[in-house]
């Protein structure tokens, strides 16, 4: 579908007030489609002014902001979260409502318990992670943490498995992201589920001395020793003999050979 046809499709889809939150079979809203299909950012702004639900989630629990962070599309994420300009002809109360909803979307967790910030860290999308962290200061709200069912933000920042953003960064040996989390975000170097390896355990497993020293300098602790397990492969001769045993010999009728 070319851009003109896609643009017309969006306009028709959103021309009726009740259609703006319709979902596809995968529970994606029009806002999800615009982000995943990389439409022009202007369409996002138009949809926001129509008060499309930025907190709507698809079957994977992703908001539109999750998809922007997953692709490390900083401009797309900005389009989803930047406050509507005061010169736009909307009642001030509507502008505040739209912006509050955009900020709330950043705290929603997908099916594995990851916020937009955590997903950005998991994917190594440091630009988006840094941007979300900056919004925390601008809007006086903690956007790097998880929203509980009581709608209040809290300090719990582990995913469904008990791992944190710092676990992700160290697992991928992402030095810049790790330093950002430790030094700028003040992430707990001993965070996460106590029954799972700590960030330091992962650094030791990866044999990343640089990250190991960084964590130790911040009083990082080891909880478990992660071991590498490998099965000894059979020798080539053994494999060959087994293959030979599986071979069968059949008499060939010379008459069928041309």
Explain what you see.
- There is one protein chain.
- This protein has 13 helices and no strands.
- Helix 7 runs antiparallel to helix 8 (about 125-140).
- The chain is mainly α.
- The chain has two domains: about 15-155, Ankyrin repeat-containing domain (Serine Threonine Protein Phosphatase 5, Tetratricopeptide repeat), CATH 1.25.40; about 160-225, Serine Threonine Protein Phosphatase 5, Tetratricopeptide repeat.
- Keywords: ANK repeat, Repeat.
- As for the number of domains, it is 2
Number-wise, the strands total 0
Radius of gyration: 26 Å
Which regions are unreliable across 5 or more consecutive residues at pLDDT < 50? 1-20, 144-156
Structural class: mainly alpha
Structural key phrases:
Serine Threonine Protein Phosphatase 5, Tetratricopeptide repeat; single chain; 258 residues; elongated; 0% strand; 13 helices; 2 domains; disordered N terminus; repeat; mainly alpha
């Amino acid at each position: 579908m070319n851009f003109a046809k896609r643009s017309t499709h969006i306009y028709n889809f959103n021309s009726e007030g009740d259609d703006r939150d319709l979902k596809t079979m995968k529970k994606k809203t029009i806002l999800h489609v615009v982000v995943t299909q990389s439409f022009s950012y202007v369409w996002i702004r138009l949809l926001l002014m129509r008060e499309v639900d930025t907190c709507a989630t698809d079957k994977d629990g992703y908001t539109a902001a999750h998809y922007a962070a997953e692709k490390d599309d900083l401009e797309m994420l900005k389009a989803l979260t930047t406050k509507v300009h005061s010169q736009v002809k909307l009642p001030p109360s509507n502008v505040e409502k739209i912006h509050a909803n955009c900020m709330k979307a950043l705290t929603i967790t997908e099916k594995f318990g990851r916020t937009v910030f955590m997903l950005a860290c998991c994917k190594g999308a440091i630009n988006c992670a840094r941007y979300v962290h900056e919004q925390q200061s601008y809007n006086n709200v903690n956007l790097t943490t998880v929203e509980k069912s009581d709608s209040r933000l809290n300090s719990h920042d582990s995913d469904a498995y008990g791992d944190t953003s710092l676990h992700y960064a160290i697992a991928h040996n992402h030095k810049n992201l790790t330093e950002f989390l430790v030094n700028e975000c003040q992430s707990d170097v001993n965070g996460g589920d106590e029954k799972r390896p700590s960030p330091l355990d992962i650094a030791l497993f990866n044999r990343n001395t640089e990250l190991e020293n960084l964590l130790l300098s911040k009083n990082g602790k080891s909880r478990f020793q992660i071991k590498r397990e490998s099965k000894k492969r059979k020798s080539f001769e053994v494999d060959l003999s087994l293959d030979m045993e599986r071979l069968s010999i059949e008499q060939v009728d010379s008459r069928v050979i041309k």
